[in-house]
């Protein structure tokens, strides 16, 4: 399936708006994704206004893509709408809890991926912003999100102004397990990561960051334990504030 | 995009195996999905053996689809492999925390949706099993999943032996918000849910369950607060046991 197999992340977009009809059709394809009990417990926030993009950009650590993409789509786990419908229909909603958050997050993420595939199938390029959960609290404020909602990911969207090569992936056998998870031997790990480690680009990465190994670039620079602990606490607190965690 | 727009959930499969080459090609398309920092912090567990399917079926509440699909794919948030690679490369992994779990869950869910789209594009049918997070603990045992992994969803896969109609969706404007989340008025909610409530199938659903409203079927029968609270506690405990929640 070409559109899936040729996916590359786009970080540079043309200064060309996305036609509203096209955007609508892509979002429609998103809503055709599987959804738990057909409840559709998600919302999509479309950001196109310049000043709102300027407010979101720092929350995505000013990644250039957050600034220069014509459209930002924030995918939100949403039990607010469904709960309101319940209350209006003599039904007591019971979704102010963690499993409901996670159910809604799954819903939102399947929509996000469908939207991404539909976008690429229409000549657009996309970039996922993994920063959404880090600054969920501030994003909630900018987007006016009510209780029982939580932003789970953001997709930047627009016409590609670059044509990057496919990025490397681990061999399929590194991520697929038949029948039982077979834990990895040192030998497995060496083999599976050998190609990635051999890439000029990765070696450059190690050098630039003055590290000894590629793994250290991840643990010491890109995804540090202290940051992870900080953002874990923060995310759990926001889940609590949004009504999804009662302890 | 036809394959996205025509998606229907398949719950009845032909007694016809999925060719290993086809399965491999579908899984490959899965791995082309976006992944945080290209870390690929997920694994896919393929279940085809009859006795293991029999062990998984009750954990999916014996949904017929869990028994009669030739293939079950369990998508797992996985920081185990990556952490082992770090440790072997003089890097201290810092991923035993909640944000890392959620990052890995996003990764796993994007792969799941790509795999589903690729499967349907090849004439296969799929059904998501939302029960995976309810019984994650028991699924971990059956699939031998180590610490720093967590099963987030399951997709049942096979050749369709039914041709269901498209299911209803809320109007696009019910789930899409431009610039800011505009909270719903009673009038909005009435309008957005009117079509769903009008469907014969839904009215049948209300009658069968001896309820007054469709919403009550959800709150009193299908997704009850007491169950949600029980499974929330259970899921949080499993996250703790798997090393993703330290409090």
From TrEMBL, chains A, B:
A Pfam cross-reference name = Nitroreductase
Q: Which InterPro entries match?
A: Flavin_OxRdtase_Frp, Nitroreductase, Nitroreductase-like
Q: Which UniProt keywords apply?
A: Flavoprotein, FMN, NADP, Oxidoreductase
Say which domain of life the source belongs to. Bacteria
Q: Which residues form a coiled coil?
A: none
Q: Which GO terms describe its molecular function?
A: oxidoreductase activity
Under SUPFAM superfamilies, the record lists: FMN-dependent nitroreductase-like
Query: Domain named Nitroreductase: which ranges?
Result: 8-159
Q: Read off the PANTHER family from this record.
A: OXYGEN-INSENSITIVE NADPH NITROREDUCTASE
The family classification in the record reads: Belongs to the flavin oxidoreductase frp family.
Protein known as: Nitroreductase
Which species is the source of this protein?
A: Tangfeifania diversioriginum
Organism lineage string = Bacteria, Pseudomonadati, Bacteroidota, Bacteroidia, Marinilabiliales
